[in-house]
Amino acid sequence: MDAKTLQTPIEYLKGVGPNRADLLKTELQIHNFQDLLQFFPFRYIDKSRFYKISELQDNSAEVQIIGKISGIRTLPMKRGKRLVADFEDDTGSIELVWFRGHKWILENLKTNAPYVIFGKLNNFNGSFSMPHPEIEELEKAKTKSDVKMHPVYPSTEKLSKRGISNRMISTLMFGLLEQSGNFSETLLSSIIADLKLMTKTEAMRNIHFPQSSELLAKAQFRLKFEEFFYIQLQLLRKNAVHKSKIKGFRFKQVGEYFNAFYNTVLPFELTGAQKRVLREIRKDLGSNAQMNRLLQGDVGSGKTIVALMSMLIAIDNGFQACLMAPTEILASQHYEGISELCEPLGVQVEILTGSTKKKDRKVLHERLQNGELHILIGTHALIEDTVKFKNLGLAVIDEQHRFGVAQRAKLWKKNTLPPHVLVMTATPIPRTLAMSLYGDLDISVIDELPPGRKPIKTVHRFDSNRLKVFKFIKDEIHKGRQVYIVYPLIEESANFDYKDLMDGYASIEREFPKPKYQISIVHGKMKPEDKAFEMERFVKGKTQIMVATTVIEVGVNVPNASLMIIESAERFGLSQLHQLRGRVGRGAEQSYCVLITGKKLSSDGKTRMETLTGTNDGFEIAEVDLKLRGPGNLMGTQQSGVLELKIADLVKDNQILKIARSYAHHVINADPNFKLEEHHMINVAFRALFNDKTIWNYIS
């Protein structure tokens, strides 16, 4: 079947018609033949085996038995009556039960004639029964098609009510496959031979109507591989096209600013990982292409120093740099840290946020346009049209998942050629997910902590141990340290959570009375200026305890805070807990994180507590999180476009993903535009799948 026929509207399939077509469209998003063919079964009923009654197990499975009906009787019930038949083979007997349709059954069933029955078993006091079995004469069953494994398709309540049953979808699918003949091959013959794959036609037939479980497994492998292969081709090609088409400014030298900083200002030796990442960035900046790099590193791994040193390379080459952060607090922290490090070098750094005063803005804009200003740090105020650089060469974006594509696109327009882009994130993204979400970005990872950092000790305590936890808090405060106490906030029940926070705050005030202890509180219902004031008091050390909902999870740096208490920790996701824990451990002292939960924990809850107490490695934690929550929830919805997978599963099939990526790499390296004769079929399939050729494809 060719690509054009596949686009035929579903109402033209025999047995569908306009009414059913509307239901299929609204309930299952099946609009054309191709959508139906890609509507894959989620499980299969194995009818390849017949059971003897003596072999039946109490596992509520669906089974198939050959036997005879020896007698039928009607039994009264509270409401109406039920029909019961004794069904036996040479090893025993079971009861068949019907609660409706009695007339038809009494007229059509013969005693002592051989039948095949199929259905779900019930076990009551050791004897088996089968309610409403599928029943067919043995002779007729033998003449049926040789499909042994029957597909079960996803359905909805509305479809079942309107008579679109699993059997009907199977019939439509069977009809469409009969009519479609052979499918155009979408994979290279060399890949098919190499991996011993099924053809596309065999795979499509065996995914819907498998002849055996081996053939089903082969069909699944083939189709999962193909799905990943094309996603990877798309991402890798985007990257290759980007590098060839989108020219970048070439930073030819590493000069005075960079060397002076490295030799005299840098407060500590860089880790091996930081040096490796800097080499990767320098290589990009020295080429003719525009850099588009994702820098991943756990909280506290030293991403900011790497970003600053990259900015100094830009300045050495006569360019300016900017750093965009998602919140004012984060922007000011970056500003304080970076301007302090740049002072001895004479590098000019400024900050621009929503609260920058008008007269200051005017001066700032002038200095930015005449090139006096080297580095501008700020919130999305940076992308306003009024902000004009003399020569922007590098844009660093912190916590990129908080900025939309359109916002990043505005940064591109700040110079004649787009500036180099370095995107930083402290949210560790598992390798498999990064390959699928950011396959078009080059990825650098800082995977070791700077020397002198002590790993945070994490413990799990139940509510009943609260008094011991309070004593521990007092001990830490007596040593001169500060403490975070975090409460969950779940939007649906904001009032309930607010009460939680306020009750917690009241009990902490009783336990830690003024004037001996000072407490700050920050939550979502406060005005921004009140939040900033409270944060400021804590940052300056005027309060020892910060009681908060999760507003503190991103980026606040208080080196003196050494203890993080997380209340109702079972209500947080793993990556969120890991982010919160990263708020402490920023000074030279030993830091601690205490997870407090109720007694009753779900198995996922237990896994989360064990994972956090067992490791500080963000990537390991992200892998567990991916297994528990699935990819959609991990990244939020804005990126799920890539991940609307039809058959493959990122978690279970990550080995197939890796194989598919290596083959896709091979094709793209040899022929990024699929111009070679042997890649003709890939070109056709690729065009059919991804015909969106807008600028958005080039923007990370």
TrEMBL record:
Spell out the protein name for this chain.
ATP-dependent DNA helicase RecG
Q: Which InterPro entries match?
A: ATP-dep_DNA_helicase_RecG, DEAD/DEAH_box_helicase_dom, Helicase_ATP-bd, Helicase_C-like, NA-bd_OB-fold, P-loop_NTPase, RecG/Mfd, RecG_dom3_C
Listed under catalytic activity are: Couples ATP hydrolysis with the unwinding of duplex DNA by translocating in the 3'-5' direction; ATP + H2O = ADP + phosphate + H(+)
Q: What class of enzyme is it?
A: isomerase
Enzyme Commission number, as recorded: 5.6.2.4
Function statement: Plays a critical role in recombination and DNA repair. Helps process Holliday junction intermediates to mature products by catalyzing branch migration. Has replication fork regression activity, unwinds stalled or blocked replication forks to make a HJ that can be resolved. Has a DNA unwinding activity characteristic of a DNA helicase with 3'-5' polarity.
- What positions does the domain Helicase ATP-binding occupy? 284-446
Q: Taxonomically, which superkingdom?
A: Bacteria
Molecular function in Gene Ontology: 3'-5' DNA helicase activity; ATP binding; ATP hydrolysis activity; DNA binding
Its keywords, alphabetically, are: ATP-binding, DNA damage, DNA recombination, DNA repair, DNA-binding, Helicase, Hydrolase, Isomerase, Nucleotide-binding
PANTHER family this protein is in? ATP-DEPENDENT DNA HELICASE HOMOLOG RECG, CHLOROPLASTIC
Indicate yes or no for the key word Hydrolase: yes
Q: Which CDD domains match?
A: DEXHc_RecG, RecG_wedge_OBF
A Pfam short name? RecG_wedge
Its BP terms in the Gene Ontology are: DNA recombination; DNA repair
**Does S-adenosyl-L-methionine show up as a keyword for this record?**
no
